Amino acid sequence: MLEFWNVSTEMSHRCTQRLEKDKLIRRVKMSWSDIPDWFYLYDEKRPDQIQHRLGKAWIYTAWHMKSLDSQNNQELTYFKSEERKFFDQDKTLPIIDDYGVMKHKVYGEIFYFGEFQVLESGNKWNKNYRKLFQTFAEDQILNLMVVTTGSYETLKNQLVRELSGMKNVRLEFYQLDKLKKISWRIVLRKREERRQKELV
């Protein structure tokens, strides 16, 4: 990642042009992104599935923001290695985009699963979450967050139907832009809370 601090836009452009000319970085444009230029190391292969990777990262960010929000009474501890090994070994279970564990002060452990769907890719949902969730105890709280680049209504209808009767499963659906806004709101509120404490 390239970061420029306390410099003008013109100066940062000159720097990236020089790095490109010296064959240290490559520039690439992403049609789906509102950021005009992306860069990666010249001698490395262009990263694949960048949009999907960034979407997954936003899910983790949202979980982290949720755990920082004092009103939620929970702390993010990420996945436990033995559980991840179990998921990966059983080839009949879906490949999970994101997995984490929240420790709640009242309810104990809540298992979080995250899926990011790039609707423009045209990929259809084919993950058997019912089978995965049946590997957990019936009284264990499970949370599935699905984030999409566009409307999630079709996916929501499908998952609600497929997971009907599983009373311990909670479903959350977000458009990526909405998830980003919620995360930023929490960040700004936490920053303001810290500032108020410093003034006291």
How many individual helices? 6
Report the strand count: 7
Name the overall outline: globular
Quickly give the structural class.
alpha/beta
Strand order of the largest sheet: 3-4-5-6-7
CA radius of gyration is: 20 Å
Q: Please give the alpha-carbon distance between the first and last residues.
A: 37 Å
Key features of this structure:
40% helix; 5-stranded mixed β-sheet; single chain; 200 residues; globular; 7 strands; two-stranded antiparallel ribbon; alpha/beta; 6 helices
Could you give the topology of this structure?
Elements: H1 9-21, E1 25-28, E2 38-41, H2 50-68, E3 74-76, H3 81-89, E4 98-104, E5 108-117, H4 129-133, E6 141-148, H5 153-162, E7 169-175, H6 176-199
Parallel strand pairs: 5-6, 6-7
Antiparallel strand pairs: 1-2, 3-4, 4-5
Helix pairs in contact: 2-6
Can you tell me about this structure?
The mean pLDDT is 83. By secondary structure, this protein is an alpha/beta fold. The radius of gyration is 20 Å and the shape is globular. The chain is built from six helices and seven strands, in the order αββαβαββαβαβα.
Summarize the structure.
This protein is of the alpha/beta class and 200 residues long. It has helices at 9-21, 50-68, 81-89, 129-133, 153-162, 176-199; strands spanning 25-28, 38-41, 74-76, 98-104, 108-117, 141-148, 169-175.
